[in-house]
Specification:
The complex is a heterodimer of chains A (115) and B (111). Chain A is an all-beta fold. Chain A contains no helices and eleven strands. In chain A, the strands form two sheets. In chain A, strands 2, 4, 5, 6, 9, 10 and 11 form a seven-stranded mixed β-sheet that branches. A four-stranded antiparallel β-sheet of chain A has the order 1-3-8-7, with no helix packed on it. Chain A starts with a strand and ends with a strand. Chain B has 111 residues and is an all-beta fold. Chain B has no helices and nine strands. Chain B has strands at residues 9-13, 18-23, 31-38, 45-50, 55-56, 61-64, 70-75, 84-92, 105-110. Chain B starts with 8 loop residues before the first strand and ends with a strand. Classes of the chains: A mainly beta (115), B mainly beta (111). Chain A binds chain B through residues 1, 4, 6, 32, 34, 36, 43-46, 49, 91, 93, 95, 97, 102-109, 111, and chain B through 32, 36, 38, 41-46, 49, 87, 93-104.
């Protein structure tokens, strides 16, 4: 299957700083990328959907000014957590799909810890 | 998308078949049944999907009842590495939308 990578795999930052997480499709063109968040012992919750070259669509309750998403190319999407706080500590997972295909391919996730 | 119901947890002995049930009684005619799994601290992994016929691949078999209101994922010879949370998701084919994850079933394969 297609491969999706995320970088970094884990990050620790101080409260108030910003953190950027990259999601790359390595061997296919990702026309759509999804960003999920997963708190301990909970399921994945969708944060936003981004189509290449368009603004992201955020789910209700997700602050678009806090979680900045850029999908400027067909192989890269970034999620920037601005002014991170301890409650933003979570496992962030991206997935990608290509136009005309049903299957979504997931990245390995990024563990964010905000001190 | 139709709602799914799965048992919260199951145990299975190593080497035996693991049968994971899923109820989706409100499934629509154009909705497929997808199965993903998530090993601890990893991203979800696609396993299999089907519409109404039984499906089999190198990982698992998917049995869908004739009325399509429930399905069973079968791991024929479970190994310790199959310990994971298994998610049953119902979604229309060709949908560009996200996958909606429920709480899934925590499968623990015991030595």
């Amino acid at each position: 299957g297609a491969v999706v990578s995320q970088h970094p795999s884990w990050v620790i930052c101080k409260s108030g700083t910003s953190v950027k997480i990259e999601c790359r499709s390595l061997d296919f063109q990702a026309t759509t990328m999804f960003w999920y968040r997963q708190f301990p012992k909970q399921s994945l919750m969708l944060m936003a959907t981004s189509n290449e070259g368009s603004k992201a669509t955020y789910e209700q309750g997700v602050e678009k000014d806090k979680f900045l998403i850029n999908h400027a190319s067909l192989t890269l999407s970034t999620l920037t957590v601005t002014s991170a706080h301890p409650e933003d500590s979570s496992f962030y997972i991206c997935s990608a799909r290509t136009s005309g295909e049903d299957e979504q391919f997931f990245g390995p996730g990024t563990r964010l810890t905000v001190l | 998308d139709a709602k799914t119901t799965q048992p919260p947890s199951m145990d299975c002995a190593e080497g035996r078949a693991a049968n994971l049930p899923c109820n989706h009684s409100t499934i629509s005619g154009n909705e497929y049944v997808y199965w993903y799994r998530q090993i601890h601290s990893q991203g979800p992994q696609y396993i299999i999907h089907g519409l109404k016929n039984n499906e089999t691949n190198e990982m698992a078999s998917l049995i869908i009842t004739e009325d399509r209101k429930s399905s069973t994922l079968i791991l024929p010879h479970a190994t310790l590495r199959d310990t994971a949370v298994y998610y049953c998701i119902v979604r229309p084919s060709g949908s560009a939308r996200q996958l909606t994850f429920g709480s899934g079933t925590q499968l623990t394969v015991l030595p």
